[in-house]
Amino acid sequence: MIRIILAATAALIPVAAFAHDGLAIRDAYARSANPQTGAVFLVVENHRKVECRLTGVSSSAAEMVELHTHAEADGVMKMQKIEGGIAIPAGGEHALARGGDHVMLMGLTSPLAQGDSVALTLDFGDCGTQQVEAAVDNDRAAEAEATAAHKGH
Ligand SMILES: [Cu+2]
Question: Which CATH architecture best describes the domain 2-151?
Answer without folding.
Answer: Sandwich (2.60)
